[in-house]
Amino acid sequence: MRVAVLGGGRSAEHEVSLVSAASVRDGLAAAGHAIVAIEITRDGRWFSDGGELALTPGSGLLDCDVVFPALHGPYGEDGTVQGLLECLDVPYVGSGVAASALCMDKVRFKGLMDAAGVPQVDSRSLTRRELEAGGAAAAIELVAPLHRPLFVKPARMGSSVGISKVEESGLELHHAIEAALAHDELAIIEAGAPGIEVECSVFAGPDGARASQPGEIVIEADFYDYEAKYEPGGMTLRLPPRISPSAAATVQRLALSAFELCGCADLARVDFFVDGETVLVNELNTMPGFTPTSVYARLWEADGIPYPALVDRLCRAALARFERAGAARAHG
Ligand SMILES: Nc1ncnc2c1ncn2[C@@H]1O[C@H](COP(=O)(O)OP(=O)(O)O)[C@@H](O)[C@H]1O
Ligand SMILES: [Mg+2]
Fold first, then answer.
1. 159 given a catalytic annotation
2. What is the pLDDT of residue 154?
3. Could you tell me how far CA 123 lies from the centroid of its own chain?
4. What confidence score (pLDDT) does residue 232 get?
5. Domain boundaries, the chain
6. Using CB atoms within 10 A as the burial measure, which of 2, 120, 206, 324 is most buried?
7. Does the annotation mark 158 as catalytic?
8. Who lines ligand 1 at CB under 6 A?
9. Which one of 289, 294, 298, 301 is the catalytic residue?
């Protein structure tokens, strides 16, 4: 296959995406595919082979069979690039427009999980406009029922950018909300979850969706912040996780439920807080970090799928989906 791998992008996760994309290119090359590297600049322009691309709707992308958008965060993992790829009429790895947008938005994602009875931490949301209208006092009142510490986050970000852990209401809370609102118009304030962090990889091919064995995120830092995620040694993945077999089964079941409820495609990494038998969904990443040492790939490697085979299967899954959708359109 000839695969276009997209890297970079407009979000705060630009650098992380470049590393993911380089790994995906190496993995696909090792699996025998021809690679077209496309780099998206921080201001959103697309370059390949030193030249800037001009895209034509309906005409595909540089004659590629499939696109692997190894992009994280806004303008990459949130449905925008997916919409562009739909307009180009080219198959691409990962969730479509609606699922990508939904999973990028922690407030809407939680709303859907709540409606489906999926367990999660208690939370409140706050817009910039609401903060300006009600001031700090209204924010303090809003979050009063939530169990401390609080986690204050931009609704649509990733890599822990803009997230603060807050022990007390007051000035500290106000600063944390301002920090989150620097990245988005909408912030979410969550009750702190007890227990450990556990992540689970989902792969969905033509034969259906499968959840990997979960892995435990072990960190020295106070929480899994940007440094812990990307500094060497900042995080250790513990396999198997220190949770009971029944909690592990619950993690896998909820990972697949979240994946189906959101209408995801091909892949996702679903993250949890586990305390004894209590399993809470934290979030679903439609395009998680994608180096061979990233959690998504390592969980599959532990299940016997090496990195090149994993990226190869994802491209094949994307192509098969596109062909099925084309057949449905033709018969519709
Ligand atoms: N409600 C919470 N309780 C405990 N820890 C949390 C909570 N929310 C976030 N965290 C910590 O912050 C990290 C980043 O939060 P997360 O919601 O996963 O944001 P991101 O999308 O940036 O990864 C988590 O991995 C965890 O360590
Ligand atoms: Mg996370």
1. yes
2. 97
3. 20
4. 85
5. 2-94, 102-118+194-310, 123-191
6. 120
7. no
8. 121, 151, 153, 157-160, 163, 190, 192-193, 197, 223-224, 271, 282-283
9. 289
CA of 332 to the centre of ligand 1 (A): 43
Q: Choose the residue to mutate in 223, 269, 273 for probing ligand 1, maximizing ligand atoms within 8 Å of C-beta.
A: 223
Please say if 178 is a catalytic residue. Answer: no
Count of alpha carbons within 13 angstroms of residue 305, beta-carbon side: 20
Structure tokens at 146: 């939530």
DSSP string, 147-199: PSSEEEEESS--TTTT-EEESSSSHHHHHHHHHHHTT-SEEEEEEPPPSEEEE
Active site residue 124: no
Q: Is 285 a catalytic residue?
A: yes
Among 69-78, 85-94, 201-210, 230-239, which stretch is predicted with the lowest mean pLDDT? 230-239
Percentage of the chain beyond pLDDT 90 is 91
Claim: this prediction has a pTM higher than 0.85 = yes
252-284 as b/e, with b when 16 or more CB fall inside 10 Å? bebbbbbbebbebbbbbbbbbbbeeeebbbbbb
User: What confidence score (pLDDT) does residue 332 get?
Assistant: 60
Q: Which residues pair with 6 in a beta bridge?
A: 38, 69
Ligand nearest to the CA of 153: 1
Task: Calculate the alpha carbon distances from 44 to 74, 176, 249, 288, 294 in Å.
Answer: 11, 29, 41, 20, 25
User: CA-CA distance, 172 to 223, in Å (whole number)?
Assistant: 17
Q: What is the pLDDT of residues 246-273, one digit of tens each?
A: 999 999 999 999 999 999 999 999 999 9
Instruction: Report the distance separating Cα 154 and Cα 189, nearest Å.
Output: 9
Q: Which of 105, 153, 282 to mutate to test the pocket of ligand 1 (most atoms within 8 A of CB)?
A: 282
Which tokens sit at 85? 């790829």
HEC profile of 76-89: CCCCHHHHHHHHHC
| Angstrom distance (rounded) from CA 172 to CA 109 | 26
Q: Which CATH architecture has domain 123-191?
A: 2-Layer Sandwich (3.30)
Query: Does 102-118+194-310 carry CATH code 3.30.470.20?
Result: yes
Per CATH, which fold does 2-94 belong to?
A: Rossmann fold (3.40.50)
